[in-house]
Design a protein that fits this description.
This protein is mainly beta. The chain folds into two domains: 134 residues, Sandwich (Immunoglobulin-like); 168 residues, Glucose Permease (Domain IIA) (Distorted Sandwich). It is built from four helices and 25 strands. The strands form four sheets. Strands 13, 16, 17, 18, 19, 20, 21, 22, 23 and 24 form a ten-stranded antiparallel beta sheet that branches. Strands 1, 4, 6, 7, 10 and 11 form a six-stranded mixed beta sheet that branches. It has a six-stranded antiparallel beta sheet with strand order 2-25-3-5-9-8. Strand 14 and strand 15 form a beta hairpin. The longest helix is centred in the middle third of the chain and has 15 residues. The protein is globular. The structure holds zinc ion (ZN). Zinc ion binds next to loops.
Length: 317
């Protein structure tokens, strides 16, 4: 990547290093000059609705790393690793709100007193999530009497929780499943009532009898609990860098705002509270305000994901 400090460097790199497998090994052996330096890793393309990892790594000290994606600035942590120091991010797009196509991804950090900004592009690819078309009585589509003031109040609380941005990375992959059970409704699924589509499912539903203990898939801090009209008894956990876990329809909430939880800790018991027809656990993963499909992250690791992506060197003067 050409040096254009303190301004913009482009997403395409002349000195591109393929990370992962034999390609990386061969390049490292042939090009010892590529040891050290500063690199960013992000996908060139990714499916809409799916989470992806990004990283910034450097042999030299840097401060205040952040990445801007879909209008949100995500603060990153600085940890030992990679070239010397590394910052990890987990990003994605909510299939309801984001259109496939090219979207800018901007890394920023301060190094040797210089503000460095690098812009890349991620092409979001279309992905078809399952749909179910139903013909129903019109009064089922629009509930007759709804407490609008309560819904508005709770939506504001959820929106504020979704804006939470803390620097310390408490999340680590893979995620632990919140319950050991089958998925009854996957992310992205949408019902179409009389031709009118509902919002796509913003999380994963697990089959769970009332009272099943619910484990935190990630460590974090409880930022919101409540009994909400749609979501029922709910818990929101912040794991840092904009990574939030949401647990809905609980019968019991086992934590309170401000509590620190470790991965696997019980945050409550599943139930059937809120506007649902039967007991289940809804687990939502929100990344910098975007609801993504949590499921692949129960198996995939962030380091594994990053190894399958290309990384680009940032050259500064
Ligand atoms: Zn759900």
């Amino acid at each position: 990547m050409a040096a254009r400090p303190p301004g913009e460097a482009s997403g395409k790199s002349a000195a591109r290093v393929l990370a992962g497998g034999l390609a990386a090994l061969a390049l490292l052996l042939l090009c010892p000059a590529s040891w050290g330096g500063t690199f960013v890793t992000f996908p060139e393309s990714w499916d809409v609705g799916q989470a992806f990892a990004v990283s910034l790594t450097s042999s030299a000290e840097y401060e205040d790393p952040c990445v801007t994606w879909l209008g949100r600035r995500v603060s990153l942590d600085v940890e030992p690793g990679g070239e010397g120091r590394i910052s990890y991010g987990l990003l994605g797009s909510y299939v309801r709100d984001v259109k496939p196509g090219d979207h800018p991804l901007v890394f920023e950090f301060v190094q040797r007193g210089q503000h460095i900004r690098v812009t890349g592009t991620v092409r979001l690819l279309p992905r078809k999530y399952p749909e179910e078309h139903l013909k129903v009585s019109p009064k089922m589509v629009f509930p007759a009497k709804v407490d609008q003031a309560r819904i508005k109040r709770e939506a504001a609380l959820a929106a504020a929780a979704k804006r939470t941005m803390t620097v310390e990375r408490l999340w680590a992959s893979p995620l632990q499943k919140p319950v050991r059970s089958i998925v009854t409704s996957s992310y992205g699924f949408r019902r179409v009532y009389n031709g009118t589509p509902r919002s796509p499912h913003a999380g994963t539903d697990f089959r769970a009898a009332v009272g099943t203990p619910v484990a935190a898939p990630l460590a974090g801090t409880v930022i919101l609990t409540g009994d909400h009209y749609y979501a029922g008894k709910s818990v929101y956990v912040d794991s840092g860098n904009g990574v939030l876990s949401l647990f809905f329809h609980l019968s019991e909430i086992g934590v309170k705002k401000g509590d620190r939880v470790v991965k696997g800790q019980i945050v409550g018991r599943s139930g059937a509270t809120g506007r649902i027809t039967g007991p289940h656990l809804h687990y939502g993963l929100c990344l910098a305000g975007q609801y993504v499909d949590p499921y692949p992250l129960f198996e995939d690791s962030v380091t594994g994901m990053l190894k399958r992506m290309e990384r680009e060197e940032i050259v500064t003067e």
